[in-house]
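Lab channel / #folding
Pinned by the channel admin:
"Please post every new chain as: sequence first, then the structure tokens as a reply. Keep commentary short and put observations after the output so the thread stays searchable."

First post following the new format, from NK:
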Amino acid sequence: GIKFLLAAEPDILVCAECDRPSQLEGLLDSLMPQVLIMDLNMPEGGGFPLLEKVRASNPDLHVVVLSTHDSPSFVSTALAFGCGGYVTKSRANLELVLAIRAVMTGNRFLSSDLRHGKSAGGKSLSQRETEVLNGLIQGRNPKALALEMGIADKTLYAHRSNIMRKLQARNLQELHEIALASGLL
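Reply from TO:
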């Protein structure tokens, strides 16, 4: 299905496909593609170790992950391992080509179901909560951030508590990962 979808695009050429990680290295070396589309659910211990290995040995290769997984921790881990795009299989027919074109120009791409908060439990943040989130993610001191925003410390901490609850984050590191994976940053 993916090959058929991409064949309709005049500027995209599918040069190879494989279903086992052991086949991938030889193909990458001989064909030197610009973009690799990979599923993390692969045999032979595929997944994140394969993504890490591919990125380490092919730093100029653009990687788009195509996966059924839409959990924030899964998406943020894939991004941390160096993929430039992440498309859920439910959005592939509409957004895979967009992802390929985005990563080719050096941009990141998350499928719309991830960007619009599906992976954040469907809970949206208010504009003020988004401002607080951005400040916290930047590592800003909460008291200084509250002063800069013209709100009381307690108000900022209430916003932080609401953000953590809405995004189901247990700590600031997890909050950062979820916000990144959900396209909130």
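NK: The radius of gyration is 19 Å.
TO: also worth noting, Residues 16 and 146 are 53 Å apart (CA to CA).
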